[in-house]
């Protein structure tokens, strides 16, 4: 049973007031960059106690901080979203997200803030997404992206002035089951597949990230690794969608993670990019090239395909 819109709206009215000072926002932004866009349970408890807030009040108060991660050179429309998710240990975590746009490339390549937050939760081991707080109403594309989640039937969407269920915003929805797909984003168990003939030098985390891709429609288990000179590696995985277009490519997924560290994508920071995909289902090379073409001096690009053993 989902909470009714009326109840959610009442809750919103009760929670409307708190906002962080500029100084507090700056401190939180600095902490989040170091924690790669995640507020852990211990941080959430500390902030709730310090400011006398409920978890939901804190979630909403953090949304303007999520917007600070936005990279929006085209629209200058800075969207923030935060998923309240539960990790494998049963702890509540906030997974931040923001929109990412690419200049001189098709608008269809942008990453939406809601995708970014859900991707952050998914890649970092959340087992479920309970709520998502967003700075602005989710577009139709994002409503469809959220409908791929295993918690789509109970997902709460918190906007600054009003709360909804996903069902309120996406009635008579088209979803995974309409294509005969019984799994959903974040419901799948760990992959038992392997790649064959892959070099021993290939990064283990990249292989694991590819095998954990959500690819019920094409079977292209694929992932991207962004290596930096001084700030470690960032990984992204392919997340497909029943309506196809809202699917998130592995490079978009990795870039979205990269930007949640507050880094800028330039040749002083990024050393190389590696795309790994499944030999007989590959479909990501041209998308990756298109996205990378939007950067000045794109980094070294390595492309690996490997056969999948099911
Ligand atoms: Zn959207």
UniProtKB/TrEMBL annotation:
Alphabetic keyword roster: Hydrolase, Metal-binding, Zinc
Gene3D superfamilies found in the cross-reference section: Cytidine Deaminase, domain 2
Stretches assigned to the CMP/dCMP-type deaminase domain: 54-177, 197-310
Taxonomy, superkingdom: Bacteria
InterPro entries in the cross-refs: APOBEC/CMP_deaminase_Zn-bd, CMP_dCMP_dom, Cyd/dCyd_deaminase_Zn-bd, Cyt/Deoxycyt_deaminase, Cytidine_deaminase-like
Keyword Iron: no
Family, similarity comment: Belongs to the cytidine and deoxycytidylate deaminase family.
PANTHER family per the UniProt record, alphabetical: CYTIDINE DEAMINASE
Subunit organization: Homodimer.
Name of the protein: Cytidine deaminase
């Amino acid at each position: 049973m989902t909470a009714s819109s009326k109840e959610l709206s009442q809750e919103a009215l009760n929670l409307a007031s708190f906002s962080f000072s500029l100084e507090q926002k700056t401190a939180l932004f600095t902490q989040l960059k170091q924690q790669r866009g995640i507020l852990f349970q211990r941080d959430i408890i500390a902030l709730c106690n310090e400011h006398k807030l409920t978890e939901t009040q804190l979630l909403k108060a953090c949304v303007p901080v999520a917007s600070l991660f936005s990279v929006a050179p085209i629209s200058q429309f800075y969207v923030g979203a935060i998923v309240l998710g539960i990790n494998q240990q049963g702890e509540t975590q906030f997974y931040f997200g923001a929109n990412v746009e690419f200049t001189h490339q098709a608008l269809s390549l942008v990453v939406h803030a809601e995708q970014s937050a859900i991707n952050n939760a998914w890649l970092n081991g959340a087992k479920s997404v309970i709520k998502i707080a967003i700075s602005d109403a989710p577009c139709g594309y994002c409503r469809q992206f959220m409908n791929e989640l295993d918690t789509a039937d109970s997902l709460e969407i918190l906007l600054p002035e009003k709360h909804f269920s996903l069902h309120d915003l996406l009635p008579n929805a088209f979803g995974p089951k309409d294509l005969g797909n019984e799994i959903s984003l974040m419901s799948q168990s760990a992959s038992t597949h392997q790649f064959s003939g892959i070099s021993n030098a290939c990064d283990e985390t990249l292989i694991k990230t590819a095998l954990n891709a959500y690819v019920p429609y094409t079977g292209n288990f694929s992932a991207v690794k962004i290596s930096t000179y001084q700030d470690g590696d960032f990984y992204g995985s392919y997340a497909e969608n029943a309506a196809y277009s809202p699917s998130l490519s592995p490079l978009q997924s990795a870039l979205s993670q990269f930007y949640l560290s507050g880094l800028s994508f330039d040749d002083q920071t990024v050393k190389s990019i590696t795309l790994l995909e499944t030999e007989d289902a590959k479909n990501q090379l041209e998308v990756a090239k298109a996205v990378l073409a939007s950067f000045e001096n794109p980094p070294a690009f390595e492309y690996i395909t490997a056969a999948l053993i099911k």
